[in-house]
Fold this sequence. Notes:
Number of domains: 2
Distance between the termini: 51 Å
Largest sheet: 4 strands, antiparallel
Strand order of the largest sheet: 3-4-6-5
CATH superfamily of the largest domain: Ribosome-recycling factor
Mean pLDDT: 87
Structural class: alpha+beta
Amino acid sequence: MNEEIELVLDEARDRMQKALEHLEHELARLRAGKATPALLDGITVDYYGVNSPLNQVSNIHTPDARTILIQPWEKSMLGVIEKAILAANIGLTPINNGEVIRINVPPLTEERRHQLVKQVKNEGETAKISIRNSRKWANDELKKLLKEGLPEDLEKIAEEDVQEMTDDFTAKVDKVITLKEKDILTV
């Protein structure tokens, strides 16, 4: 196949893959009733004047399914970390015992579970829109190549490849959404 077509297909595949990875990252931050260090992703603390991610100033682990344990590398950071978690407004309350910060993750109510499922579906739809935008971009690029002298049959084959790729990534998004919904609805 034509080298320019390969470049367009590779770029479209990369864009679609990024949309899928972004979805997975966003869903990892949703609380499904289980304690995971990913719940604290995106929280930064002031570490000697530099905003640093929480996982770069402490060890974060989960001793059981309902507890997150944060052990700062310096005890002086306990108060700063506690304030950062409260300021992040993630719906979890840190407990500072002077050594470590413990966060108890409460079980989800039925109503909250259904809200989270709606949120998962919205994130999934956003990912699908991004994938369709990548398809549109690739098809537009193929049309430009057609105007520049690309044979029409090659352009049609490439469009079919783009559509196959779109269907494949859409199916992957559906699979990720289904798994997350099952995870949330499992009591």
